[in-house]
Amino acid sequence: MTEIEIGRGKRARRAYSFDDIAVVPSRRTRDPQDVSISWTIDALTFEIPVLAAPMDSVVSPATAIAIGRLGGLGVLDLEGLWTRYEDAEHQLARIHELDPSHATAEMQRLYAEPIKPELISARLAEIRAAGVPVAGALSPQRTQEHHQAVIDAGVDLFVIRGTTVSAEHVSKSTEPLNLKKFIYELDVPVIVGGAATYTAALHLMRTGAAGVLVGFGGGAASTTRLSLGIHAPMATAVSDVAAARRDYMDESGGRYVHVIADGGLGTSGDIVKAVAMGADAVMLGSALAQSTDAPGKGWHWGAEAHHGELPRGERVRVGQLAPLEQLLFGPSHLADGQVNLMGALRRSMATTGYSDLKEFQRVEVVVAPYRSR
Prior knowledge:
Layout: E1 3-7, E2 10-13, E3 21-23, E4 39-41, E5 44-46, E6 50-52, H1 61-69, E7 73-77, H2 88-96, H3 103-110, H4 117-129, E8 135-138, H5 140-153, E9 157-161, H6 179-185, E10 190-195, H7 198-205, E11 211-214, H8 224-228, H9 234-252, E12 258-262, H10 268-276, E13 281-284, H11 286-289, E14 299-300, E15 316-317, H12 324-329, H13 341-351, H14 357-360, E16 365-367
Parallel strand pairs: 6-7, 6-13, 7-8, 8-9, 9-10, 10-11, 11-12, 12-13
Antiparallel strand pairs: 1-2, 3-16, 4-5, 14-15
């Protein structure tokens, strides 16, 4: 790939965001109803390629159940308010009303409450009782401490999610999580991330992960680029990780690891382009936080917003657009790609002539920078 000279002492390759690319129609078209957008990971099959992000503003036990009934997967944050407080809804209501000038400090205080293993069990049991797939997420730092409670409670899929997750964490003070050993001993598929480069993703795939989350600091509530100077434009990141998947398939004798775009997915067009670049599914945060069913009630934030030492996110106002089912399946009364997300994915695939997600990963794309009005 051509490198750009930034100065005499540093060169860099050009990277692209979803806004920088566009999908190109082919010689064939289809009817949208003839398109399949289902996906399968391990023994689990989902009608839509959507995972709801493990964020308190997006997923509660109730919304995890609702998303499961709509054909997707809700991932509960097992370090969130639901596993720290019996009265989590009351704590959420307090966050909704926080003065912006004090929001970060107050959220740091609320999230300082210890995680309670019995609440992990109770929340996961509530989701399981509804008869939908159960998924929970912990950060790498908390996985060793609380994974047994997760195993005992029972999940169908486990997510290890952080701002970035590596297979080679080095620490002088603590024993790092041995991902390969942990995944081998766990009896459910594990999705790990975020990763943003070919090499990092390849190493995560070699741990035995069933899926890799792609993204770093690109979410609507993230300030990672401002605070740490780190950012991974998503079109390039997804393509790089998809290339790692291809090479790992050759290396492993055919083992397929799912690529899940996680971040920078604010519109249906972004979802379309994530799949076009090689993603099997998408993890949505702000896009689902805008539903009237979301626990954030029009506000959105992630774990980075209440980090005890260096917050790298904010509580942001995203508004409320429509009920969850309408947000996913329409009808839409907006023309900006924020409602009827799955209908738009189907129509884009049909317009370009592809019948399923894996086929659509081969669609032609062009570099065509676009900025909304």
